[in-house]
Every structure is written in structure tokens, then in C-alpha cells.
């Protein structure tokens, strides 16, 4: 067989398929050439106008819809990325096959060979390919559109199709950190978001571990009953529980101020507990929110930790008892390490979930009471502030998208750092 020139095969693949044909793989070359032809047709009929649309975001107000152009252009960018990947694979494949042929190797040349190769080596890729396509349209496309919106002036003065959107670069991100109207608001909301996330998540984790460890002890009777009771907050829909607590913490007619506090004062006269402004004092509203989330979140941790405790060998505790270890020493040196070894990644997800826990903030008191400027209430976290920025009378979509980017960077960065620290992705051993 005549030797092949790998470099020539790769250069011929500048037009996809020709390199494969020069290697004798006419079937594969025909497929690659067909994909290239489809891409050219797509660019002529849709792609070129889509690229122009995302660059200009429209030319005629009232006619061009900038948001449609942004979505179409983003989709076209994804198509371009996929084609570039295909283009690179096509060139590498031509060079690689030529090298195999020079070494006396065998490669498939017919459609039957391609079919057989897909049925064996390519079967996993055939199964996952539809999932990747679905992911592009349901995850990557919306994320990219939101990302691009952060670099536009999309607000109440620029709502398509009546007005065109235009690119503004980093203006929205700069506004968050430089404009007085948003700088103070972002600082206040971000600070409370961190406090809320740390306190609420830690409380539910501590409660979950505590209840699981206590219920696991041999001297506890009626464990099934306790298990049912601990699962009740999880069984009831969260929005029902939150709305119920909103009534329970009502300043004037809620059960806490009307019944619980008077009962405690009657039972313990020396306490002199005053009525608390749960819904009108920002501090007490925040305390109530943290307590409610502790109540809502601990059952999941309880179930998780209960399963872990059942997997810990009793021999470890017996050996510790023989060595004279106290109950606290057993918990600290045996139970707690075993829990964190398995559940640390899940605990991280509790923090990331509460960082974006919109439901409880919105349903309990709509981010109130009062406000800290910029459309945000005293108990709004970043995600609920974004909601208000996009649904208020003067929506600021571009600014909201910029805050979304900040949230994503924080959550992804912290999660990856913790996962790496806890070796959550290390599946060996």
C-alpha cells in the first residue's frame, strides 16, 4: 500500500472530508463533507443574519426585537462552537488515520464499518448524544443569554420591540460597585445573604445531626414515632409551612406573641419577655427566618445522617469504651468524622441552596420590613433582589443579570473549593 502523508491529509481536511477520502475512507469523508455543506447552507440561510443580529441587536426600533436577535445570535454562536469542534476533530482524524495506515494498521472504509464501529466503540456516545443536545438548549443557551444580558442596557427604558437594546460592556457591573444608589444596597444585601446562608444552613445541619444521633441511641424508646415526627416538616409542602409561620409570627395576632410569650411569662414570671416585632423589626424578622429554615431543613439532614450512623460498626464504639473514652470523645473521634466523610458534599449543597433560597424570603415577608434602597428590602437576599429588579415598575434586567453573574461566580467558586478540600470528586479507593 502506498504510504500516506499525514500532513497532507490534515491540510486536505481544511475542506472537511477530503482528508478522509485521501485516506481511502470515502464513506466517512462523504459524511464529513455533508456536514460541512449543511453548515454552509445554515450560515447562508440563518447564521449570517443571526451573527449580525447579535452584534447590532437590531437597527429599526419597533421592527427589530433585540431580545429575539440576542437569543438567535447566542444559538448561532453555539452552532459555531460545535462546528469548530467538528472541524478540529476532522483535521486530527485525517492525520491520525494516515499515521495508522503508514504503520500497517487497518481502518474502516465503508458504511458497514462505520456502523460496526458505532455499535461497539461509539455506543456510549450514541446514548449520551441526545442528552448533550438537550443540555445545549435547556441549560447552556439560557445561561449564555442571561450572561450576555448583563452587558447590555436592557431596562425599563429599553424594552423591545418598542426600543432597541445596545451593548454597554461592563457598565452594569461597574454600577453595582460604584453608583451610590446600588453600591450601598449591594453591600447590605450581600452581607445579609452571607449571614443568612451561614446561620440558616449551619442551624439545620446541627439540628439534623443532633436529632439523628440522639434518636440512634439504644436507650431511646419509640424510635419510629420520633422518626415520623422529625419527618413532618419535610412531608408538608414548604410553601404551606412558610405561610403558616408567617401567620404564627404575626406581631398582633400571631400565636407566638398572643399565646406562647404570655404562657412563658406566666410559667416563669421572672423572665418578663416582651412582645416581639417579628414582622416589623428587621432584626427579629431575620431571626425568625433563620429559625424557620432550621425547622424546614433539618429533616433531610436527619435522614441522611441516620443512614450513615447505621453503617458505623459497633466494634469501634466498644473498643473506645474499653479504652475509657467518654460519650463526647466517641462522638468527636468516631461519629462526626464518619458523618463528614460521607455527607460533606451534601452539607455544601445546603449552603449553596440557601444562598439562593428565594421561596422562604419571598413568602414569609416579601423581603421586608422596610427597604435598604435600590428596590431591596431589609431581609432580601441577592436572588430575591434580582426578582424585584426584574418584576418592579422600573425593571432593570441588565443589572439583574450582572448580579446573577456575581452569584454564580460565588456559588461555583466556593463549591469547587470545598469539594476539592473534601475530595468530593475523588472516587478512587
Q: What attributes does this structure have?
A:
single chain, mainly alpha, MetI-like fold, 2 domains, two-stranded antiparallel sheet, transmembrane, membrane, MetI-like_sf
What does this structure look like?
With 429 residues, this protein is mostly helical. The protein has two domains: 6-169, no CATH class; 176-422, MetI-like fold, CATH 1.10.3720.10. It has 17 helices and two strands. A hairpin with a 2-residue loop joins strand 1 (371-373) and strand 2 (376-377). The longest helix has 37 residues, at 66-102. The mean pLDDT is 89.
Please outline the helices and strands.
Blueprint: H1 6-12, H2 18-22, H3 26-56, H4 66-102, H5 111-120, H6 123-149, H7 171-178, H8 180-216, H9 223-235, H10 238-248, H11 255-267, H12 282-311, H13 314-322, H14 327-355, H15 358-365, E1 371-373, E2 376-377, H16 382-391, H17 397-422
Antiparallel strand pairs: 1-2
Helix pairs in contact: 1-4, 3-4, 4-6, 6-17, 7-8, 7-17, 8-12, 8-14, 9-12, 10-15, 12-14, 14-17, 16-17
Overview in brief:
This protein has helices at 6-12, 18-22, 26-56, 66-102, 111-120, 123-149, 171-178, 180-216, 223-235, 238-248, 255-267, 282-311, 314-322, 327-355, 358-365, 382-391, 397-422, and strands at residues 371-373, 376-377.
